[in-house]
Amino acid sequence: MAANAPEIVLLPGLDGTGDLFDWVTPFLTEDLNVSIVRYPPDPTLGYAGYTELVRNAIGKRKVFLLGESFSGPVAVRVAKQLGEQIKGIVLAATFVKNPWPSWLIRRAANVDPMATPAKIRNAILIGPYGDAELTRRIDEIVRTIPRPLRAARFRAMADVDVRDDFGALRCPVLALHGRDDWLVPKKSMQNAIITKGGARMVVIPGAHMLLQTRAEAAAGEIVSFTKSSAEVSYEA
User: Is the separation of the CB atoms in 103 and 46 below 8 Å?
Assistant: First the structure.
């Protein structure tokens, strides 16, 4: 990739490792320089801590920013705080306010993830679109992510609400969502887009893990977004 190509910074889902971007990055790197922020396994961070970590990782660079699932609120907060440094924001399979009752998310934080049958978990996360390697990787993450860390991230999601920050964004916005996403229903993001105005949402046939199961289609939308946003000036 040429040194002068636009940079996009990818923020990971609940696992925080960034490893699950392996499916989409090959389709992005022909047009973009890709950086991945990997979260430390620190259950004390919360959304404020992740936001600071990402802001420091970006420094003074001008970049596009993508927040997947858990990281959507992080991406919104960083974009609001860094202003003109963020050339555009992509929100993939995510939310600006927890779309489920807070008590339900707090209860889910205490559930042993191994108690959910793999077939049900995979139906929710990947539907009929996954592959054997992705299934294996999901199994590995479920087994190895520390339960206190998973619980802390669930509790953080329970009360997060960045709708005001989202509404105040002046950079271009693209939301990508799976048509059959049961985990994060698309209606919540659709409502936020309608309320904000000046943003675009693309719904792709797929389940929650859109960047893994529909990687080429999602990457095509992301690259088109960065190209169309290249000449858009930041509206103060």
Answer: no
Q: Tens digit of pLDDT for each residue in 52-83?
A: 999 999 999 999 999 999 999 999 999 999 99
In the chain, the amino acid numbered 45 is: L
Predicted structure pTM score: 0.94
Whether 74 contacts 96, CB under 8 Å: no
Q: pLDDT tens-digit profile of 150-195?
A: 999 999 999 999 999 999 999 999 999 999 999 999 998 999 999 9
In the structure encoding, which two tokens stand for residue 1, read together? 């990739």
pLDDT, position 34? 98
Closest residue by Cα to residue 147 from 113, 102, 117: 113
pLDDT value at residue 115 = 82
The CA distance from 165 to 79, in Å, is 9
Half-sphere exposure of 141 (CA within 13 A, CB side): 22
Domains parsed from the chain with CATH numbers: 7-229 (3.40.50.1820)
CB-based contact 88:31 (threshold 8 Å): no
Burial class (CB in 10 A: 0-12, 13-18, 19+), 2: exposed
- CA-derived radius of gyration, the chain: 17
DSSP 8-state class, residue 161: B
Q: Are 63 and 86 in contact (CB under 8 A)?
A: yes
Evaluate whether 53 touches 45 at the Cβ level (below 8 Å). Answer: yes
How far is Cα 9 from Cα 61, in angstroms, rounded to an integer?
A: 10
